[in-house]
Write a structure and sequence with these properties.
Oligomer: single chain
Mean pLDDT: 85
Largest sheet: 16 strands, antiparallel, barrel
Helix content: 10-25%
Strand content: 35-45%
Number of helices: 16
Strand order of the largest sheet: 18-19-20-21-22-23-24-26-27-28-29-31-32-34-35-36
Structural class: alpha+beta
Shape: elongated
Distance between the termini: 118 Å
């Protein structure tokens, strides 16, 4: 009886407990409705410019009120997906994609007005664009044509609304990017750290864009490992996967026309099998969107609007399948309201600015290049200009930043990766020209330079350059800043070489004057911000000028030529040879002082002013020049000359020489093709109108007097030109009146 009573009591208590539990569960259910809709994951494939179709897909998904609970992406899929996950709306991304200058995006050099004066002057040397590193006795090339500094800046702006979020699961929409380890070829899933850096790693096409180092691994475009990460999307959150495959179909043989196209074809082949496997694993609940992009290639960024439209059309064609997952209006609006954030480009104030990763470069020198200061409000645009300015020194493979907050202190940490190919670099160049006219001439020169940066903590730089050909030289300069944050510098230099100048009597080429000289000097200078620099210094020179071909047209000279030189160089042109905006000022004054070596006494001033304007693809460049000896007599090797392409184009190169000159040029240009950033600026066609006068020209055949050309010389040219990574090139037809016609072709420095 006791046992039965005990069992009955237990049963009653159990029933009461079950009833209480059920009631509690019902109350909780009433307070928090259970979400029954499936979680939807978006998987976006890579494909370069074809990936802009993803923007069109997102626009239609928003129209259909299809929710997105997580995103995975590869390459351009990671760019579009990462921006959407960070809070950008499809409409905002559409606007950004249509307005961005894609050529500028794939150019890492900062605008020339932000470059240091030394790097601007390099532009006039005629060297090819690529630098070749020299380390441990071996030559090293960059790992990519594009370093990706400008790309990463663009990605930071695109994801500004999620700045500071380092766990991608905590983004408004959880996100994963796919990259590949170039050492092993394995897939690397990026789910934390810097979102822009992860996006750039995912799109780093091997050979085209520099790899990205993250956690000790060298990462490249994820397309070679998993170009359509459906499996990752399912793992991340997806009960249902919407996959968008815009992968580039294999190119035909006639379409494989460059190294980049070969690399692109290889990436396509490496990823195709894995994409097929991913698609084969999709279920009836999943949706595959495959925009038919036709002739839009991975490089067709100029067809962004077409790619977006095709993405929209492909998605609307599947509306019936997608509407299965549409949410009621109010519910979808609430979801998107939580997922969408307005970009905030203000970074606020920082208590400190520090650098990470520096080995040779010194923080104090780099801080001097920045407008950002501790305690001053900072925005993304200002910081972007600062980073590009630092990158423009030529010492770094990459540069980015992160924000670190600890114990109430906000620190801006700038991560600068010094060049694997540095700090020693070689550059090479060619200069050739030929003209057909009254006097056919041809010249050829091969050039090289060696640069050793950060010789000491203050940023000392050794520059050695040489040239072999019609004009030969070998010179070296050591540029030494006087303090970390001082614009002052000292620059000793030495050089020797040979120049050849033609001597004319009217239109007749009589002889060549060959001048051999050796010089040493030292300049004290000041960098005038990014505008230019001022130098003043002493120069000691030994000159030997002789007529080596033809009759003895001018007396031989063997003398010392010592004096003081003042030089001002200011350059804000956007491009050195085909400028579309900005100005340039070049002034040099030389005073020869016999007291320093019993040489000739003379004075010389050279002044050149250039201004450029543009409207659309049209541009105007105006140049004024003047040179004078202030009434003194210049030795023959220091003569002022005019003649040749764009210096009176209808006449022979240096056909006119004398003691003073005035010159004016108006060049009208049309850019009919803009080249991708790594290849150059563009192809141009134009007209050049020129006028000049030489005063007190040299009389010839041994006499010591001077004569004057009586009239202003007029000339002009019609030309086509290219501003390429190999340097400037021109093909033109010059006319100088009275039958003076010249057909000229030149590559390199004119």
């Amino acid at each position: 009886m006791a046992a039965f009573s005990s069992r009955l009591t237990g049963a009653l208590l159990g029933s009461v407990a079950a009833a209480l539990t059920l009631a509690a569960g019902s109350a909780a259910a009433a307070q928090a409705p259970v979400e029954t809709r499936p979680r939807i994951a978006l998987a976006l494939s890579g494909g370069g410019a074809r990936g802009l179709a993803h923007v069109g897909v997102l626009k239609v998904l928003e129209e259909l009120r299809v929710p997105v609970d997580c995103i995975t992406g590869t390459s351009m899929g990671a760019v579009v997906g990462g921006a959407y996950a960070a809070g950008a709306s499809a409409a905002r991304m559409d606007d950004v994609v249509r307005k961005v200058d894609w050529n500028d995006l794939f150019t890492d050099r900062p605008p020339r007005d932000e470059m240091t004066p030394r790097r601007k002057q390099d532009d006039y040397s005629g060297y090819f664009a690529p630098e070749i590193g020299l380390r441990n006795g071996s030559l090293r090339l960059a790992k990519g044509v594009v370093a990706g500094v400008t790309i990463e800046s663009f990605l930071r702006k695109l994801t500004a609304s999620a700045a500071g979020v380092e766990e991608f699961s905590r983004l408004p929409i959880p996100f994963r990017a796919v990259a590949a380890d170039i050492e092993t070829g394995q897939q690397v899933v990026l789910g934390q750290g810097s979102l822009p850096l992860a996006m750039r790693a995912s799109m780093a096409i091997p050979g085209a864009v520099n790899p990205v180092e993250i956690d000790g691994r060298l990462l490249v475009d994820g397309g070679i490992a998993n170009n359509l990460p459906i499996d990752l999307a399912r793992q991340t959150c997806g009960d249902v996967v919407i996959a968008v495959n815009i992968g580039t179909p294999p190119m035909k043989r006639e379409e494989i026309t460059s190294a980049l196209s070969v690399v692109g074809q290889l990436v396509n082949f490496l990823g195709k099998e894995h994409v097929d496997q991913q698609i084969a694993g999709m279920t009836a609940q999943d949706v595959l969107i495959k925009p038919e992009l036709g002739n839009i290639t991975a490089a067709s960024f100029d067809k962004a609007a077409d790619a977006i439209r095709i993405g929209e059309e492909a998605t609307r064609a599947l509306s019936a399948q997608l509407r299965r997952y549409s949410l009621p209006q109010a519910q979808y609006v609430a979801l998107r309201s939580a997922q969408t954030r307005d970009p905030d480009h203000s970074l606020g104030r920082f208590d400190a600015i520090e650098f990470e990763g520096l080995v040779l470069a010194q923080p104090a020198t780099l801080l001097h290049l920045m407008d950002a200061k501790p305690g001053v409000p900072l925005d993304e645009d200002t910081l972007t200009r600062d980073l590009r300015r630092i990158y423009g020194r030529g010492d770094f493979d990459s540069i980015d930043y992160r924000i670190h907050e600890q114990d109430g202190t906000r620190t801006l940490l700038i991560r600068a990766k010094e060049k694997d190919t540095g700090p020693q670099a070689l550059r090479f160049g060619l200069s050739l020209s030929t003209s057909l006219g009254g006097d056919s001439t041809s010249t050829f020169n091969a050039m090289f330079s060696y640069r050793r940066s950060w010789v000491n903590p203050l940023g000392g730089e050794l520059l050695v350059n040489g040239q072999i050909g019609r004009h030969s030289r070998l010179g070296a300069e050591f540029y030494q800043p006087l303090a970390y944050d001082s614009p002052l510098f000292v620059a000793p230099y030495a050089a020797f070489g040979k120049t050849v100048r033609p001597i004319y009597a009217s239109d007749q080429h009589l002889a060549d004057l060959v001048t051999r000289d050796a010089r040493v000097g030292v300049d004290l200078g000041a960098a005038l911000g990014h505008w230019g620099e001022l130098r003043i210094g002493a120069l000691l020179r030994q000159a030997n000028a002789t007529t080596e071909t033809g009759p003895e047209a001018l007396p031989d000279i063997r003398t010392s030529d010592n004096g003081v030189r003042l030089r001002i160089f200011g350059d804000q042109l956007d491009a050195p040879w085909f400028p579309r905006s900005g100005h340039r000022v070049m002034l040099e004054v030389y005073e020869a002082l016999p007291a320093l070596g019993n040489g000739p006494r003379y004075h010389r001033l050279d002044l050149s002013l250039t201004r450029a304007y543009s409207l659309g693809e049209q541009s105007i460049e105006a140049t004024l020049g003047a040179a004078t000896s202030f009434g003194s007599r210049l030795p023959s090797y220091a003569a002022i000359t005019l003649g040749g392409p764009f210096q009176l184009s209808g006449y022979a190169t240096e056909q006119f020489s004398g003691q003073e000159s005035v010159f004016a040029r108006l060049r009208l240009m049309h850019r009919f093709l803009q080249l991708p950033g790594p290849l150059g600026q563009g192809l141009y066609g134009g007209l050049s109108l020129e006028a000049g006068r030489i005063g007190r020209s040299y009389s010839l055949l041994g006499t010591k007097g001077t004569t004057a050309l009586p009239d202003t010389l007029w000339s002009g040219a019609a030309f086509i030109g290219a501003d390429s990574f190999l340097g400037p090139a021109w093909l033109g037809l010059g006319y100088g009146g009275a039958g003076h016609v010249s057909l000229f072709l030149s590559l390199g420095v004119p």
